[in-house]
Amino acid sequence: MHSKSKLRVGMVGTGFMGKAHAFGFSAAQKVFDLPFEIILEMVADVTVEAAQRAARAYGFNQFTANWRDIIESREIDVVSITAPNALHKEIALAAIAAGKHVYCEKPLAPLVADALEMTEAAEAAGVKTQVGFNYLCNPMMQLARAMIAEGELGEIRSYRGIHAEDYMADAASPYTFRHDPAGGGALADLGSHALATAEFLLGPIGDVLGDCHTVIGERSDASGTKRRVEVDDVGRAFLRFENGANGTIEGNWIATGRKMQHDFEVYGTKGALVYTGERLNELLFYETGAKTGRQGFRRIEAGPDHPPYGQFIVAPGHQIGFNDLKTIEVAEYIRAIGGQTPEPFNFRDGLRIQTLVESIHASSRERSWRSTPFT
Amino acid sequence: MHSKSKLRVGMVGTGFMGKAHAFGFSAAQKVFDLPFEIILEMVADVTVEAAQRAARAYGFNQFTANWRDIIESREIDVVSITAPNALHKEIALAAIAAGKHVYCEKPLAPLVADALEMTEAAEAAGVKTQVGFNYLCNPMMQLARAMIAEGELGEIRSYRGIHAEDYMADAASPYTFRHDPAGGGALADLGSHALATAEFLLGPIGDVLGDCHTVIGERSDASGTKRRVEVDDVGRAFLRFENGANGTIEGNWIATGRKMQHDFEVYGTKGALVYTGERLNELLFYETGAKTGRQGFRRIEAGPDHPPYGQFIVAPGHQIGFNDLKTIEVAEYIRAIGGQTPEPFNFRDGLRIQTLVESIHASSRERSWRSTPFT
Amino acid sequence: MHSKSKLRVGMVGTGFMGKAHAFGFSAAQKVFDLPFEIILEMVADVTVEAAQRAARAYGFNQFTANWRDIIESREIDVVSITAPNALHKEIALAAIAAGKHVYCEKPLAPLVADALEMTEAAEAAGVKTQVGFNYLCNPMMQLARAMIAEGELGEIRSYRGIHAEDYMADAASPYTFRHDPAGGGALADLGSHALATAEFLLGPIGDVLGDCHTVIGERSDASGTKRRVEVDDVGRAFLRFENGANGTIEGNWIATGRKMQHDFEVYGTKGALVYTGERLNELLFYETGAKTGRQGFRRIEAGPDHPPYGQFIVAPGHQIGFNDLKTIEVAEYIRAIGGQTPEPFNFRDGLRIQTLVESIHASSRERSWRSTPFT
Amino acid sequence: MHSKSKLRVGMVGTGFMGKAHAFGFSAAQKVFDLPFEIILEMVADVTVEAAQRAARAYGFNQFTANWRDIIESREIDVVSITAPNALHKEIALAAIAAGKHVYCEKPLAPLVADALEMTEAAEAAGVKTQVGFNYLCNPMMQLARAMIAEGELGEIRSYRGIHAEDYMADAASPYTFRHDPAGGGALADLGSHALATAEFLLGPIGDVLGDCHTVIGERSDASGTKRRVEVDDVGRAFLRFENGANGTIEGNWIATGRKMQHDFEVYGTKGALVYTGERLNELLFYETGAKTGRQGFRRIEAGPDHPPYGQFIVAPGHQIGFNDLKTIEVAEYIRAIGGQTPEPFNFRDGLRIQTLVESIHASSRERSWRSTPFT
């Protein structure tokens, strides 16, 4: 029995995204035929107890309360970072310096300057990187991009993108790290997904005009102390794409009732696409050429015709879920490490998103258009 | 048999909106108990033949090729103007001078200055006026407004409004009066509905930041001559409402596949409303107070609980249509003439919309925020 | 000015359906170019006051408390019957005997024997007849029928039809004429629509197997007296169509929450159609031949490509309503009187529906299949 | 570190359902806190090569071309059967005789007599059993059942259930084991799901009246030989539940365009539920008590309020998928083996479904109602 090379994973952080990463690594090798055998080698958390618990629950061989053990381990090939955002840079730079591939949850870093430093370090070291933007791994997103790229919609004219949820809608919900003036806010947290999707589908955004609003100006922190909130609860931008299309995006975390409104609408000369994140297995498609009186938006249901859906389920319409998107992301990243494909969303892509977010924030403050060249 | 006073209508213009007005007057008195008996007295068009044809088809007593016959007729109480936009002002001022009530199709006038002159003349004369914005007469719109006004959504925080269609999406479709630099464009034609709905629901807009795009820069006119197009095919604005809410609107007449995307989403502290003009008998409502695990957007279907639906149909869910909205508009206007209610959307309201449109256009040109005080 | 012949209408009954008929006659001649000028000549109700009120509200020239005045009037050409079901036969036979065309609300008669007598009388007299089944006049229904007839779905294999509402769901709602053992029940009242639609789309039903249930066995009448209920609250049938397709229908008036679930699904070898009466301007269409990975049910929105929508509104997607369906029905009937078209749903068609309903009732009682040959 | 007991799994069959089982065992212990550590110990397929390939792909320690190796292994605790239906009985009886727990894909056995033998053997041996009916593990299904059980819908009156797909719609698709007269057909394959859901929600079905149709009477087998088809392509039944409710189910594998129409509608005195398998994360709920004019079907989106959704994703609306349902099924079964819960759907439940299917087939042949007592 010919055996694959092993790829050993160390993971820093064991919260919800840690579980998602561990699950993704585990599932990816069951679902896909990957170039490596993946070994969950070591997991780190702040306390030994938490690390041990995670090791047992997710199946890591070793655990530690010192994340530097992962960096220093000669065995470990890939470092997964699901620790708090403020630690992303330090851990990532250490891992890169140790020659390890790095998989970092979003945001890559709260500030563009930090994201740039991380990106340049990774590129200089030649390691493979990945930032968690798994919505883009949805087969329906891949289909949308392919349809646009292949000209099925003709020339693209206008675009609307949204990512709205309501988890910050309650003014009594506490002040958290997401409210930190450095890198926090709805635009950074949710609008970033809308921006990633916009460029994923239509290519580079050339100019932005932002409009960001702090609606709930004060929240209590965990200790009950009132804290002033300066980050945006709603952040919007007008967009001009380099391909000539115009559009808008909105990030909104106080959209009462919305749980996953990651939506887009693309209008071209020959057709249109409409998608809502509330139904991640569907894509609506309109084409102008249909027979008279028979035209309409058709609801395409995800199926084996839309790779890699068929890796999960042989029959169409049975639906994949959010965790499956993470599995796809992991699989694509593993393939990139194996040299089979480009990374699906590497540090430079993550940097790009931070650049767009910062530009929109600055544009909103300055009340003027800004161009958003690639850093 | 006690008999109602008669209200005699003269109509200028016999095209599609003429048919809609005639139908609306006729239907209104069958559907509603109005304070007047309405008589379709005289209709005017450019030729005697067209006027005669309309008189016969729609049931007018008299016809004429000279619209001034209507103005000069002592019998006529109300003048309906469905003539080309460029004639609205002249006809309306003449009718007002003759002491007649005036019902003018939208836009009231292409330019704010003209709309203001018409409004002031009407107010000075004390006649009742109406501009055709019949989407607002939809019982579901009325319900949405009432729910917001009564606090069912709590404090309103954010808003999205759209009116998108695709009737100008084909670059080969001809140059028309809608492309005229004075008052033309998607924002004026469709965005005006989105603006009217926004203020109808949330009250005055305080500031706007516009972004308008000419996408199809050239069209051929009826004679085959190429004409440069300067008006917007897509017009958008960020909005700040006086009540503190923020939002956006978009007018778009090149949205391939869209036939009636007159949509809005309103998010408040206690609930949310979502509406699409593609389903004018439905309103989606989310309220935060529902039982745990039972929350969700509920689809309210129009019925007799939503006046004046019950005037049309005794049973819920059977659905009214676009023409019924016109009938409601006419009925409300007739009641206003009878002193029973305010006009649903008078000349000053029409002026307001033109003011908003011009402000957004100016803001887009100047790339800066503008306040939009009432004229 | 060449003038049309006049067609004078007499109407018996002034309740909700009376209003709908009067409105339909009035609207039909504004919306369509009909072969006659329609005159609302005389209206009859039980009391002079009610008749007078209706005359004034709906615009009839004369009123009477004796419906035989309408029969005896030499001027009247068409008699509209919206009186209680129990009177349909007597009035219709009198009108037919007087040589008048007859437009009868559904059901034609509660019993097949009566419906047959009425049908044969009308055919012998050569008058034009119409039974109110206006759902069939929906442009989307017409489209569905045409698509099936033209083979766009291939050979039809299976069918599901429903008409469910909830207006009898409350056990405290009173005993009415609809609960009368002769001709009452959900199958007769609502299932009849589902049956009409099924044959309208797929042609004759050959055999039925019924299953009917009385769920609320007792209701109080207007006087507070408990009455036993024997008619069905839910009536269903398996169907075998003569074209070889199989299917089901259900009539249900205790379907809590449903206001207009007049739905059908048709599955053929080459395509499928799905419709819900909750959205009467939409038809979902699936065709097998679409490009791989682009297949799906498309939502066709009613528009001018679907006659006679364009008579009402020039733009697609703006939506017609329930009352517009009545207007179409009236217009088609008037054209039939003018010899331009067949009657859309004449007495023989109405008889057919009663035959199917009675067969299903009998089948349910006898617990066995029954064939349903045309009477 | 206290360590869990190990539970060793042997799996027979490595096709699509084999992958799903292997994935489910693997995922279940990452997602849930289970009473055992699960070891994928041995996998069997017809050839050594296939078994080895599966062992490597899914992570089994051993592989074999002789399924009896699994039975004879003292180490193995649970046997997963995903082999062809015709082998279910032999393998299951052998595993039971060896004292192993047995997890068998549906159908438990094509014939009731066989299913009964298997069930009685398992019960006599005291082993835990499971049949794959994972749709029932959907949190939205669990919610629906709980809502009905807790009386949120009042007394249940009527029910509609469907499971329709189109994978046999093409008459050119080959004759397979699913067309085998013993146990094949759409009712057995898909209608079985509709029956399972119906009893899961409403409790025992008392009587059935079936109507089954062979639409495509001949198919070619793999060798190109024409084979007569006798099983149903569409199978329906009227249902009378023991709780007094009436209803219908349909199984249909030629429903062109349908990929996962596993739908139900439940109507009670106080509310209603509507579900479609096309959107497995949504449940529509209507309650009669809502405020006047605010009533409607609300769309509940799956979230952490609907266990065990929260084990997969911390945020609502992000959506689980088909494979996650399998993971839940496995987890529940493992817990049952650990004595924590009853089996979610054991052999007796699987037997029940076969009983219902056979009764409906017999009823259809005999054209008469049949009662369906528990075997």
What do you see in this structure?
4 copies of one chain form a homotetramer. Chain A has 2 domains: 5-134, Rossmann fold, CATH 3.40.50.720; 136-370, Dihydrodipicolinate Reductase, domain 2, CATH 3.30.360. The first copy, chain A, is built from 10 helices and 17 strands. The first copy, chain A, has helices at 16-31, 48-58, 68-72, 88-97, 112-125, 139-149, 186-202, 309-312, 322-337, 347-366; strands at 5-12, 36-44, 62-64, 78-81, 101-104, 129-131, 156-164, 205-213, 218-220, 226-228, 234-241, 246-252, 261-268, 271-276, 282-287, 297-301, 370-371. Chain A has 375 residues and is α/β, with parallel strands linked by helices. Chain A has a 9-stranded mixed β-sheet. In chain A, strands 3-2-1-4-5-6 form a 6-stranded parallel β-sheet, sandwiched between helices. Chains in contact: A-B, A-C, A-D, B-C, B-D, C-D. The A-B interface holds A 153, 157-158, 160, 162, 169, 171, 209, 211, 213, 215, 233-234, 236, 238, 246, 248, 250, 252, 254-258, 265, 267-272, 286, 288, 295-297, 367-369 and B 153, 157-158, 160, 162, 169, 171, 209, 211, 213, 215, 233-234, 236, 238, 246, 248, 250, 252, 254-258, 265, 267-272, 286, 288, 295-297, 367-369.
